[in-house]
Amino acid sequence: MNLIDIPVKAMETPTGMASALLAELNDHLHNLLKKGETHVIDLLSLPLNEADINELADLLGVGEVKATIKSIGSSSIRETAYSGIWWITHYGDDEKVLSELIEVTQVPEILVTHMDEVRHSAQVMASSLAGQEKVI
Amino acid sequence: MTEERVDKAETLGGSLISNGVSRRTFLKFCSTVASAMALPPAAAKAMAEKLSQATRQSVIWLSFQECTGCTESITRSHKPTLESLIFDFISLDYHHTLQAASGDAAEHAREEAQKKHKGKYILIVDGAIPVKDGGVYSTIAGITNLQMLQDVAKDAMAIVSVGTCAAYGGLPKANPNPTGAVAVSDIVKDKPIINIPGCPPIPVVMTGVLAHVLTFGIPELDSHGRPMAFFGDSIHDRCYRRPFYDKGQFAKGFDDEGARKGWCLFEVGCKGPTTHNACATVKWNNGTSFPIQSGHGCIGCSEPDFWDAGSFYKPLSTGSMNMEGWATGALAAGAAVGVASGLLNSNTKSKAEAKHEPVTLEDMGAKNE
User: Fold this and answer.
1) Distance from CA of A73 to the nearest CA of B (A)
2) I need a labelling partner for B152 at 20 to 30 A (CA). Which of A130, B145, B205, B238 fits?
3) In which element (H, E) is residue A121 found?
4) In angstroms, what separates the C-alpha of A33 from chain B's closest C-alpha?
5) CATH says A3-106 is which class?
């Protein structure tokens, strides 16, 4: 028997989940527009196979923003062709997908600089300026 | 007073930023934990916010009758991973395998933490507690495990029993239980106890539960004291070989056609249907695989008394397993408390003893075709 005869294969066909998700995203877009409500969908928690994920990615398309975050593995943040719908993938150090989210928002939460960090960088800036004065 | 104020000022958010752990890393960690625990995705932000406002949680980790496999599991990452971030969120004040201090200094660190964080520290226990003959069979610094558990549990905020030994007695409690080993919950009755069984437990289950305790408090638990998020489904429920079970396609041996075709391992003794854990979804070794994916049935290591519940290679349906003990009896034991639970436990145990059979070569090959 060859490996190819083993019927356990990653051969998957779309289940229709992608278009169901599209309908849900449509609602969330309207909520964002009318009430300013943001929403997050955790793709890993849904019974999606690889074909569904690919179909969803095709349906949503590619928009004009792509950002990468480097922190213990990378994170990729892409706006889809539908403005306000973002596709976020967090990778671990080993390139394994840790979480995959769709955010309906103007700016994904993870891109916004947190005020704690602004405060910290202001302190660092101030102390480096103070250091410069001493040198001068 | 001053010291307390300094403590309060040093939030996790503040201390981690100065150590180069960004808020985005925080949020990423929380997104991953929220996803693993099936929390609403929006909870990740709330979790990150709460974690950053929290101070480092004092944790005392006591290791009793154990093999250190649980500690291996939580610390043995191939490289620094997101999961290991949990060690930045807690202050591990005592862990006799991991701490640098030894001898009197080590015990002093434990006493110090107990005093300083009285009523606020989390106690993590791995290993069972021998109680026979006054508990002499396992001692640390001349103190029996029993005494140390009672002493440290007294002022703990909550207890996390890590691994099947601490949660249910595990291997030390296996027939004939020469040391009179019992679970943490058999001794401590007045503190919230979270059981994270498994031999060992899955790393992300341990870190996820700890992160949940730090932010939203004690998670929802099942009748065995296990977090529902990870132990709510059986291995069978989430097994990728489930479609073969439904179609009645079973491997009858470990090298027959069914085994080669990746069919269901129920008939070679898989305990997936009676075992609750997250192995089938979270998997092991950085998500590589889990026992069933590697061709061996689940042995049910996260269930009480799994070691005495019959051969790992006898199918559940042939009656070699004490189904009553595994399902009904065990559930009732988890729900009952005090005397009733003791009675049921001994009942389950004697049944398991009667059913106990050593594994023979025949067991493993008898069904070969």
Assistant:
1) 8
2) B205
3) helix A115-135
4) 19
5) alpha beta
In angstroms, the CA A114 to CA A119 distance is 9
Rounded to two decimals, the pTM is: 0.76
Domain chopping of chain B, boundaries: 56-230, 235-308
How would DSSP label each residue in B125-147?
A: EESBEE-GGGGTTSEETTEEHHH
Amino acid at B134: G
User: Domain B56-230's class?
Assistant: alpha beta
Measured in degrees and rounded to the nearest 5, phi and psi for residue B130 equal: -80, 130
- Tell me which residues of chain A, numbers 50 to 89, contact chain B at a CB-CB cutoff of 8 Å: 69, 71-73, 75
Radius of gyration over alpha carbons of chain B, in Å? 22
On chain B, the residues whose CB falls within 8 A of the CB of A6 are: 260-262
pLDDT digits (tens, 9 = 90+) for B280-318: 888 888 778 899 999 999 999 999 999 998 899 999 865
Record the tokens describing residue B132, joined without a space. 């026979």
Any idea which fold B235-308 has? Cytochrome-c3 Hydrogenase; Chain A, domain 2 (4.10.480)
Of B246, B164, B242, which is closest to residue B205 (Cα–Cα)? B164
ipTM: 0.80
- B81 has a chain A CB within 8 A of its CB: yes
